[in-house]
Design goal:
The structure is a single chain. This protein is 80% helix and 0% strand. It is elongated and about 65 Å long. Helix 3 packs parallel to helix 6. With 166 residues, the chain is mainly α. It has one domain. The two termini are 25 Å apart.
């Protein structure tokens, strides 16, 4: 079993743990004076940018899920009907991998929307004297976005690899 198999079992948990560790380190480093946060205006701007990017990526993943579901609905191959003459893509749609892929992509969408909503909520609630905490959110949110994007690209590359071997 590869490290990716372990990661994909609880990908959201691992993403949030990694983001939380980074955020906790920044809070500690800020407290110790190792890291000095940028200006409040820049932090608020970064929160908006991160939330916007999160929603945009969630839209792309939602489009991908919609396309996969549309192709699946047009596909008439069932698990019992799979023959050696069927394309690898038809076999993919008839396999459990299809549902696993959709599950991972849906969890990515939920995670990205959560980061966006949390970012906008923090922007509304945190006052300028406490804006240093926005740096921790920005780093944690960026980590979650990067992991989610990498997971989506990994899934897409695996689907393309399946087609390549057809």
């Amino acid at each position: 079993m590869s490290i990716l198999d372990y990661y994909f079992r609880r990908q959201i948990l691992y993403d949030y743990i990694a983001g939380g560790v980074m955020a906790a380190y920044l809070v500690w480093a800020n407290y110790k004076g190792i890291v000095i946060p940028p200006s409040s205006d820049l932090l608020y701007s970064m929160v908006s940018d991160l939330a916007t990017v999160s929603l945009t990526l969630a839209g792309f993943l939602l489009t991908l899920v919609t396309v996969l579901i549309s192709f699946k609905s047009a596909n008439k191959v069932d698990r019992e009907d799979v023959k050696e003459t069927d394309t690898v893509f038809d076999i993919f749609f008839a396999s459990a991998l299809y549902f696993e892929t959709i599950r991972h992509l849906k969890s990515g969408i939920k995670s990205l929307v959560f980061v966006a909503v949390l970012g906008y909520s923090l922007k509304l609630c945190i006052t300028k004297p406490n804006s240093g905490y926005l740096l921790s959110f920005n780093v944690a949110g960026l980590a979650i976005v990067v992991f989610t994007l990498a997971r989506g690209i990994t899934i897409l590359s695996q689907i393309v690899n399946m087609q390549r071997h057809d």
